[in-house]
Amino acid sequence: MLFTDSIAALSSGHLPSGVAIVRISGPNVRFALETISGLLPKPRQAHYGALHAPDGKLIDHGLTLFFPGPNSFTGEDCGEFQLHGGRAVVAALLAEIGKLPGFRQAEAGEFTKRAFLNGKMDLLEAEALADLINAETEAQRQFAVLNSSGAQSELYLGWRKRLIHARAMIEAEMDFADEADVPGSVSSQVWHDVSSLIDEIRRHVDGYNKAEMIRDGFDVVILGAPNAGKSSLLNALLQREAAIVTDEPGTTRDLVEAVLDLEGLKVRITDTAGLREPAGKVEAIGIERAKARAKGADLVLFLEDMSMPSELLAPGDVPFIAIGTKLDRHQLAAVDARYIHMISTTTGQGIDDLLKMIGERARDAVGQRGDILPSRLRHVELLKDAQNYLAAALEASDELLELKAENLRLASNRIGRLAGAVDVEDLLDVVFSQFCIGK
Fold this sequence. Notes:
44% of the residues lie in helices and 18% in strands. It is an alpha/beta fold.
């Protein structure tokens, strides 16, 4: 796709920094490189020298690189200026580039959007690139790398090819039923494969919860009565003061959330208001929020002061670990067998084992790393649409081959939209707005 304007943006991290990278892309890149660095560098070879404004004013000294299209990230001519990462230095360079003919500041994700429109990547790979940039844990990085390498695209492309083939066979049966070289019926072969494909899509869609856990984190909620040690446990798990701890019951009135990285998996830990009745008006609101948060959790840590046992139970059908607290004040022989684990946040006893326990639950929930999973809600929605159209094709009467073929077309269309092969203009702004400026 030919763009008439050129774009520029800071592509490196927050300023100030040791080195800053300013990226440019578009038809006027060669002119900009020659104007500012004084020459057009050899492709993919760094040139060190002075960087000047068009009026000859020195901006800085740094490296200049040139990536001619189509062998560049965006598929068009690209360039980079690598200079000192001072705010004033970068601002001066961007201001001078902006004065050059045909240049403007890039929008969020515009470099990647141009790469997509120029066929350098499909929509799934673009989304995976956004995930890779935002990855905070090793599991998130591995998940993003797998998808950005094309594994997800390959899976969906294979499904679409099977549907196109099935549709072609059905239409051949409709159009050439009287021809000698066309079988009288291909239904048994086609519909058997369609039935198998429905099962494959269903299993794939079922993996979305695992993908959510990798991206958003395994959700752990701490519940218990006031002064059961919930905030103390949160602080002990994080090894920092994230929540206020006092002897006064009901200190925590709202949700306090923090994030852990357990063996490469993101784990979200939420401290909640103490569960008790009766409660004051404000405290009651906090208790309701605690119960609601726990119902949507992947794991509840249900804490109980072993000297003050209660009848409270973790709400809803949520996996939970019953934990006895303040172990330093009690004799092990006297501990109630109903506790799965016992801890002391004062001495640290049992904390490491609890972290291992949470990590094991998170790993079991996420499953085998390396599985190809739907990484966006839009993937799930399109795949469910395709699944419904395939089911409709199977259920339609054998005499209505036109209807069956149309349902196959609609299903393949939905799968094509996943990678951006079909009618994606309405999705582009949403997808690429997730990127930062300069990417």
